[in-house]
Amino acid sequence: MSCGIRHVLKCRGANILPSFGGSCSSVQRYSRPYTMQQQQQQEECLQVATNVTEQKHNVSREVRGQNLGLCRGFRGCTVWLTGLSGAGKTSIAFELEAYLVSKGIPAYGLDGDNIRTGLNKNLGFSQVDREENIRRVAEVAKLFADSGVVSICSFVSPFAEDREMARKIHKDADLKFFEIYIDTPLEVCETRDTKGLYKKARQGVIQGFTGVTQAYEAPDAPDLRVSTEGMTVRESTLKLIKLLESEAIIPKFLKEDEPLPELFVAESLKTALEAEAKTLPALALTEVELQWLQILAEGWAYPLKGFMREQEYLQALHFNCLLNEDETLRVNQSVPIVLSATEADKQRLEGVSALALQYGGRTVAVLRKPEFYYQRKEERCARQFGTSNRAHPYIKMIYESGDYLVGGEIEALERIQWNDGLDAYRLTPNELRQRFREIKADAVFAFQLRNPIHNGHALLMSDCRRQLLERGYKNPVLLLHPLGGWTKDDDVPLPVRMAQHQAVLDSGVLDRDHTVLAIFPSPMMYAGPTEVQWHAKARMNAGANHYIVGRDPAGMPHPDKDLYPDGNLYDGTHGARVLKMAPGLDSIEILPFRVAAYDKSCSQMAFFDPARKQDFDFISGTRMRTLARNGENPPNGFMEPKAWQILAEYYQSLQKSQ
């Protein structure tokens, strides 16, 4: 045989009959023997090349694993789902695919019908073709797995011999292969027969249909047996997720129904920790640092376990992300959460095993194994804020803080209480998650704000709920989540904002039954697109899966107002654009903010229509404050009257005090 090609004649003594309108994978062996003519028709002459040599890639699996997806480490493998038609293979496969992709793990579902319309559309239903169908799929899955992708194959594949061939293809390539038996009773599969294939098979219209006129060879020892009877797709898929976690294909993520780890000392150990703290040297916290301690202790910044050590600080500052403990997963952490110390503090405390953190002379936490490192303030500010201008209020605080940072794991003695009449609104992430479960929310959309609510905001939030309902959610709930930490002097104080927000809810402008009003205890940094990632990540930890982002989130005017044409520190569109691209925020969907303005034609807030821009009035914050200070009312429909009254009284009190 020339050119290094040998001819191989392959034929099997089984008759193959196609189904009518059904899945190709549902057509199986038919027991009648071949006639001579049929056998001749089924014989195929395959050309097999013998002069080929495998070419090794320059990129190793280890290198692929370090650079492919958000989770470090090689995770390529094949998950092979087998079972009767209607068992639920494809539904589970695509649910698993969506879960993996949402966690930053590359995955792709290879479905039997999809393969037959492309790669294998030239194959018929002869025994040779059907074996070749499975062989090709297994080879493609192997290539996907070798590239670092989790390949998810959903095929009836009723014969143990074919499945074993697929396993061997992977074993020979030193790749993991998981055979998953979707064990759904035949009678249940028949009830799911939306195409009527089982009915046609019972009537004899379709011959050789698996489970009716042809047997299914159930796996004797699958890697996992999954029942779908009486279970949701999600519940069935969780079994596969647990298997892949146990095999280190999936890092162990925090589950939606698991409590978020907090950094409070256990009640049984509190007395001992208090006694220990009395023996430790102390470091005083500022009010803003106490707010960051609250953030850490309650789990908003999970998986951080304390104030950042230098390694964590560098990751946050330069990559806006942190690596988890085994360095397999990147989680978003766009802002440094750090504790400052002076040169004198460093000289006094460096080398101690632990220190007490105090506020107002009272110990609030213990910090273990403190690590001191130099704070390059200009570098920090330039990377976090895009400027080092000291007229920026948070940058001013950084420059006034100590020249060193100190990191270490913390144990908080108890919850931080501010005793301002608003502590009942300061729900922790775990408390919010529990609240959402109690009201049976199937979607939570969060709205971050540090300003009073006008009817344009309410329109936007109501419209988001409408969109989620149209997408099939039954009970989407709004997390109305004003920022409650430090803000600059000219922002409206938290007590005034909370009273104003309550007035909006009381008026019915927002639906109280589908709204949770709570306080987010973070300080405000005015760091634009960098900070808005932190705002989204913290709400994700609290159970939100949708996040509303508006124009110029976390922005402010540039201290040098002549530097940029619009006078602002950040481009107004960059926050929303960055959020959609930010790594480590895969569990939360970003909902863009539609622009609303006052529609003079109907005396209410409405979404801006460029076609009739003359009808719209954009009422700026400066104009709103001027009206409030002068005791004037805004146009009817701009803000709920009682909410406006609260705001106006605040600004008038400022004017009187001045």
From TrEMBL:
InterPro entries: APS (IPR002891), APS_kinase_dom (IPR059117), ATP-Sase_PUA-like_dom (IPR025980), P-loop_NTPase (IPR027417), PUA-like_sf (IPR015947), Rossmann-like_a/b/a_fold (IPR014729), Sulfurylase_cat_dom (IPR024951), Sulphate_adenylyltransferase (IPR002650). Its main location: plastid. CDD domains: APSK (cd02027), ATPS (cd00517). Residues 424-650 form the Sulphate adenylyltransferase catalytic domain. It is found in: Plastid, Chloroplast. GO terms for biological process: 3'-phosphoadenosine 5'-phosphosulfate biosynthetic process; sulfate assimilation. Transmembrane segments: none annotated. Pathway: Sulfur metabolism; hydrogen sulfide biosynthesis; sulfite from sulfate: step 1/3; Sulfur metabolism; sulfate assimilation. Keywords: ATP-binding, Chloroplast, Kinase, Nucleotide-binding, Nucleotidyltransferase, Plastid, Transferase, Transit peptide. Residues 75-226 form the APS kinase domain. It catalyses: sulfate + ATP + H(+) = adenosine 5'-phosphosulfate + diphosphate. Residues 259-415 form the ATP-sulfurylase PUA-like domain. PROSITE patterns: PROKAR_LIPOPROTEIN (PS51257). One of its GO terms (molecular function) is sulfate adenylyltransferase (ATP) activity. In the C-terminal section; belongs to the sulfate adenylyltransferase family. In the N-terminal section; belongs to the APS kinase family. NCBIfam families: apsK, PRK03846.1, sopT. This is 3'-phosphoadenosine-5'-phosphosulfate synthase. It comes from Anopheles coluzzii. The lineage of its organism: Eukaryota, Metazoa, Ecdysozoa, Arthropoda, Hexapoda.
